[in-house]
User: Fold Class I SAM-dependent methyltransferase from Streptomyces prasinosporus.
Amino acid sequence: MTTQHGDGTDPDGVDWDARAAAFDEEPDHGLRDPRVRAAWAARLREWLPARPGDVLDLGCGTGSLSLLAAEQGHRVTGVDRSPAMVELARQKLAGRHAVFLTGDAARPPVDGERYDAVLVRHVLWTLPEPDRALRRWRDLLRPGGRLVLVEGVWGTVSPVGIPADRLTALLAPLTARVRVERLSGDPALWGREVDDERYAVVALWE
Assistant:
């Protein structure tokens, strides 16, 4: 999970530029294990539009989900605060219909562009004003667009994250078309068994 803080660190002070080279070593980051990769690819087929479209991947990290979306025919724009992550994403998707930008996921530098889907994994919980970010992301969608959020609450001693019920409450004023998909019970997504809260929310707009 990458961060969108202005100094390139997360709430615990992690320097993601420094961690970029090893970021893909986590099974659900690099998706190098064929089983993990296939599990995420299957989920993206369910979450993203059936027809090829324009997908904005916010907090894209090294571009692993961007690559899956591109392989499914989508045109991808990725945004991440970390220049090192963005450079790795560009290398990973070289030759594909993809553009990567260095910038803040909460205020994507996309110059008024609109998208068929906005994909955000493990970013919303780091933002100081998640409700405002959700409104901005909604405004980046074309009619019929969708917002795909992969979030959770990680850890048991000092848990961090955003619970699904809080996220759906934040979305309630924006759209009634919200689906929650629980992900904790699918070890193929994470490369191991997990016992914390992990989920995806797909919110649709007319």
Remarks:
- Residues 34-47 form the longest helix (14 residues).
- Helices lie at 16-23, 27-30, 34-47, 64-71, 83-92, 130-139, 164-171, 187-190.
- The chain has a mean pLDDT of 91.
